[in-house]
């Protein structure tokens, strides 16, 4: 047996889970386990107690609430990829879910787990930054709603405190934007990205960009927003030259880390090219692209 | 911790340590050694089994998490000494050399086979993208999958015509 020994309890409610984890500083929540269990097997993590929240149906809920789409933390990647409601209200998220790992992982991995894990090379944090999502959490102190720009830190760090459970995410529904694009590169599709970008934009009836935001994948020590993008494209009719100019502006801020898959310079180029491709998709400038209009 | 599962239609109950991975549970506790264990951290796909009909990696799941659920392993494929259509196709197309990845490949492809929906080669490659093979170069695996899935689709079509 590779994982170190730990106690294991199946939580019967959110409060039960929070209560158990709060009492033990080395306890952790376990959901789909697609990041945590490999970490146990590699002995990078050795919790004393795992509190299994995966059977809490209340965290599996996906519904519209006014202007937002609420996605429960236990919604699996495969569900996010396939649910008609997500396709309709959050097409960028639905597309990105298809790029998360492989089918075997998508059938177990959970939305909340991937966000709480906060890997800079993961897709969902980038999408949340692009759409301006709000993270909903619960702890013994009550509920917190955290704008995602304040949620993600560097190197797997988040605003979550010990004993605080990510219960769901609220995404603005597509009425707030009408264009999107997604591009990612990995040596084998489904592996952690070498670089990627998720773009969310709005174009008005005169063809002008009124708003654009991008989340970048593997572009720095944590999930990263594309700085300077909105200023570069806002109020313009976006063409290829404008895209290249905007990407050049963003590229200067990128600080990916060298690793076995490439040097900092190479990875910076991959992220910039991914952003360029995602922007071309979003602004209908990709000759081979499919329709990315949502309104 | 008491864990009850149904594997290939048969019920089992074992008392296991929480840290036991599902892959080790299947192999060491139930003696079902058809499920191969490769990387043991969710990369190679060779330990793929079906959990309630869907492919998952048995090395990135605790045995205790499968309590009350239905599992299918490669031992559940052949019936009365007769190979499953997928296994027949892998044999016919030389879809394996050392065979280590084969149980994972078969279990990953099984839901697609059962759906009996025709897939392009690109779609087949996408389905098995989470399974590593170090021998074949994948070409014959794709051919085997294509043959099996097409046969399943043909059977479904003729069943429809007759009905």
Q: What are the defining features of this structure?
A:
heterodimer; A: 295 residues; alpha+beta; Uridine Diphospho-n-acetylenolpyruvylglucosamine Reductase, domain 2; Uridine Diphospho-n-acetylenolpyruvylglucosamine Reductase, domain 3; 3 domains; five-stranded antiparallel β-sheet; 12 strands; globular; B: alpha+beta; DNA polymerase, domain 1; five-stranded mixed β-sheet; 14% strand
Characterization of the model:
The complex is a heterodimer of chains A (295) and B (163). Chain A starts with 6 loop residues before the first strand and ends in a 13-residue tail after the last helix. Chain A is built from 11 helices and 12 strands. Chain A has helices spanning 14-22, 36-41, 77-82, 84-89, 91-97, 103-106, 111-117, 123-131, 229-233, 240-251, 264-282, and strands at residues 7-10, 27-30, 49-52, 62-65, 68-72, 134-139, 142-147, 165-172, 179-185, 195-203, 209-217, 224-225. In chain A, strands 4-5-8-6-7 form a 5-stranded antiparallel β-sheet. In chain A, strand 6 (134-139) and strand 7 form a beta hairpin. Chain A is α+β, with helices and mostly antiparallel strands. The model of chain A has no long low-confidence stretch (mean pLDDT 94). Chain B contains 5 helices and 5 strands. Chain B has 2 domains: 2-76, Beta-grasp domain (Ubiquitin-like (UB roll), Roll), CATH 3.10.20; 85-162, Orthogonal Bundle (DNA polymerase, domain 1). Chain B is of the alpha+beta class and 163 residues long. Chain B is globular, with a radius of gyration of 16 Å. The A-B interface holds A 1-8, 30, 33-34, 37-38, 40-42, 50, 52, 54, 78, 101-105, 107-108, 188-191 and B 1, 17-21, 24, 40-43, 45, 48, 51, 54-57, 59-62, 64-65, 108, 126-127, 129-131. Chain B: InterPro entries: 2Fe-2S-bd, 2Fe-2S-bd_dom_sf, 2Fe-2S_ferredoxin-like_sf, 2Fe-2S_ferredoxin-type, 2Fe2S_fd_BS, Beta-grasp_dom_sf, Diverse_Oxidoreductases. Chain B: Keywords: 2Fe-2S, Iron, Iron-sulfur, Metal-binding, Oxidoreductase.
